[in-house]
Amino acid sequence: MYRVTYEQGNGYSCNCCRQSWTETEDFDNEQDMIDYLIDRKKYGDDWELEEIREIKDEDLTTKYNKIVQILIDNSNKVKARKFKLEQLKNKLEL
User: Fold this and answer.
1) How many CA atoms within 13 Å lie on the side-chain side of 21?
2) 3-class secondary structure for the chain?
3) pTM (predicted TM-score)
4) First-to-last CA distance in the chain?
5) CB–CB of 47/6 below 8 Å?
6) What's the pLDDT tens digit per position in 6-24?
7) Burial of 41 by CB count in 10 Å (0-12 exposed, 13-18 middle, 19+ buried)?
8) Is the pLDDT of residue 94 over 60?
9) Which residues, in sequence order, are CB contacts of 8 under 8 Å at separation 6+?
10) Across-strand partners of 25?
């Protein structure tokens, strides 16, 4: 069994309306967990992955720790590209 822990947001970016909370999802097998993570990243919901645990011993395994790192790295690249495009757009509007 595997547990995915993530921070879910309400989609607002301003500080007055922004809210977020921590949620967990449990999966019976590895494939269900991987499918869930791929779907979450594909739709780009307002969420951030915190960790993946193998419930049987409550230790992060090296294998799933690498999966988390890959997802985080890719998320940061997408955010960086979006930021650069917004900067370019702002320069062109001047």
Assistant:
1) 3
2) CEEEEEEEECCCCCCCCCCEEEEEEEECCHHHHHHHHHHHHHHCCCEEEEEEEECCCCCCCHHHHHHHHHHHHHHHHHHHHHHHHHHHHHHHHC
3) 0.55
4) 54
5) yes
6) 998 888 888 888 888 999 9
7) middle
8) no
9) 20, 21, 22, 23, 45, 46, 47
10) 4
Q: Rounded distance, CA 1 to CA 64, Å? A: 13
pLDDT one-digit tens code per residue, 23-62? 999 998 888 998 888 888 776 678 888 888 887 655 556 6
pLDDT in tens, 58-87: 555 666 777 777 777 777 676 777 777 777
Q: Are the CB atoms for 20 and 7 separated by under 8 Å?
A: yes
Would you say 52 and 68 are in contact if contact means Cβ atoms under 8 Å apart? yes
CA distance 34 to 30: 6
